[in-house]
Specification:
By secondary structure, this protein is α/β, with parallel strands linked by helices. The protein has ten helices and twelve strands. Keywords: DNA-binding, Transcription, Transcription regulation.
Length: about 300
């Protein structure tokens, strides 16, 4: 049943039989047959139709954690066999938003590759909520996420605390505060469901601000790019602005609570020496990131 369970896991992760087939280099009919095999063997429906795709049934949701742990343990066996064969290697699957990837992951990955560490990286760009969800479902091993994300059952290691800032195009002469300009200039928003979007919506509701127009962007980096180009005001995490040319930007501390950035893993994730080295360097990079955000704020 193990090959069939692997197909079930891929359908659960992708939400689509066709996408699971593409990733596993199989036909959709072969994937569907394997899913039916498991369902008929145990007399339980694991999936329900959801538009053009599928979603886990209540029984499927209950089984997902156990199936994920099964393949986590299998991955540990493969790593052990590689070590016994004298060719140890670790694959680290990491999910992080674009700005956290640039600010935290890139320096650490560069260091480890320069040291020729026996590790392969598979990086997925995702907002904090999706990164935490990816760790929960076993799609990735580690996630970098803001503390208010999902993932209550995950192991979380704080990396640094960062404030959020209003950022907008710099105007000539004496300009009103950015929070006042929010009422008169286009508002840049991240995707619904992201931490930044939730914070922004809560602030607008609290202050009873209705923007004259909105521009939805897919990432923090794109938000900053719009502002640098002279259009829109947005709410951005401080780390995203530490290496941006300030000559074209106005920046103000936003009236929202700072959020810790955390490294998230599953409880049964195998932390071998390579993983421990990665986590240690990531923690050190987090401390440097906090120093850079403080310098941005002038303190």
């Amino acid at each position: 049943m193990l090959p069939a369970l692997e197909d079930v896991l891929m359908v659960a992760r992708s939400g689509s039989v066709a996408e699971a087939a593409r990733r596993l280099h199989k036909t959709p009919s072969a994937i569907s047959q394997q899913v039916r095999r498991v369902e008929e063997r145990f007399g339980v429906a694991l999936f329900e139709r959801d538009g053009r795709g599928v979603r886990l049934s209540p029984a499927g949701e209950a089984a997902l954690g156990a199936i994920t742990r099964l393949f986590d343990q299998a991955e540990g066996v493969f790593e052990l066999l590689s070590e016994l064969a004298g060719e140890p290697s670790t694959t680290l699957r990491v999910a992080a938003s674009d700005y956290l990837g640039k600010g935290l992951l890139v320096p650490v990955i560069r260091q480890m590759l320069e040291k020729r560490a026996p590790v392969r990286f598979a990086i997925t760009t995702a907002n904090s909520v999706d990164a935490a969800r990816g760790v929960e479902r076993g799609e990735v091993d580690l996630g970098l996420a803001s503390a208010s994300s999902a993932g209550g059952d995950l192991v979380k290691q704080p990396l640094f605390v960062q404030p959020f800032l209003w950022v907008g195009p710099r105007l000539k002469g004496t300009a009103p505060a950015l929070r006042e300009r929010l009422r008169h200039e286009p508002l840049l928003r991240l995707a619904p469901g992201s931490v930044g979007r939730r914070m922004l919506d809560a602030y607008l509701d609290r202050e009873r601000i209705r923007p004259i127009s909105t521009i939805d962007v897919s990432s923090v980096s794109l938000l900053v790019s719009y502002v640098s180009g002279g259009l829109g005001i947005g709410l951005a995490p401080a780390l995203a602005l530490t290496e941006v040319a300030r000559s074209r930007l106005d920046v103000e501390v936003a009236e929202v609570d700072p959020l810790p950035v955390e490294l998230m893993t599953r409880e049964n994730f195998r932390r071998n020496p390579i993983v421990e080295r990665f986590v240690e360097r990531l923690a050190a990079e987090g401390r440097r990131a906090e120093q850079r955000t403080r310098a941005l704020l002038g303190g």
